[in-house]
Design goal:
CATH class: Mainly Beta
CATH architecture: Beta Barrel
Largest sheet: 8 strands, antiparallel, barrel
Number of domains: 1
Number of strands: 8
Helix content: under 10%
Distance between the termini: 37 Å
Structural class: mainly beta
Number of helices: 1
Strand order of the largest sheet: 1-2-3-4-5-6-7-8
Strand content: over 45%
Order of helices and strands: HEEEEEEEE
Radius of gyration: 17 Å
CATH topology: Porin
């Protein structure tokens, strides 16, 4: 599995090298990486992936969309009779505004507010509910078009019987494309 990840990242670095922007604000940014979720209501941890795309409208404001998947939660939504421990999962699709502070070209902190949906389930049973995510992080730019992203989010999933609160940590790579 680790070898596959290294090969995919290496291919991406080589294939996308001409598209990396120079100094300044990029038109778009793409992020992909690892995600860890701590569900406070289930007292459970899960691991997964995250992918995101952002369009920079100016140097401070962008519109972002993300998809993520978390697996291995101990419990599942209430009413799931056939669920097994460690079988729970959450897939989310969210988007919203992101505000970035670009005073240092090598380090760019950001904050965001996302709304969307979260699909929770286990053993063939699932439910999709409204979700809200407040968070932020920092991009550390290794070169003009390649960086490392580290961030954290508070997530609330709204549901009539089974609302949950969670903290999500993410880390991964971020790529810049184009230039304004």
């Amino acid at each position: 599995m680790r070898i596959k990840i290294v090969v995919v990242v290496s291919v991406m670095l080589v294939a996308f090298q001409p598209a990396f922007s120079q100094e300044g604000v990029s038109v778009a940014e793409v992020s992909a990486g690892y995600s860890f979720l701590r569900d406070f209501d289930l007292h459970s941890n899960g691991h997964g992936w995250i992918g995101a795309l952002g369009l920079n409208l100016n140097s401070k404001f962008a519109v972002w969309g993300e998809v993520s998947g978390i697996h291995g939660l101990i419990d599942a939504p209430s009413g799931c009779i056939s669920c097994s421990p460690g079988d729970g999962r959450v897939h989310s699709f969210m988007g919203g505004p992101q505000f970035t502070l670009r005073t240092n070209p090598r380090v760019t902190p950001f904050v965001h507010v996302f709304l969307g949906g979260a699909r929770r389930g286990s053993a063939g049973q699932s439910a999709t509910d409204l979700a809200m995510q407040l968070g932020g992080g920092t991009d550390f730019w290794l070169r003009s078009g390649l960086g490392v992203r580290i961030g954290g989010d508070y997530r609330h999933i709204f549901a009539d019987l089974d609302a949950t609160d969670a903290f999500r940590f993410q880390s991964g790579l971020v790529f810049r494309f184009g230039r304004r």
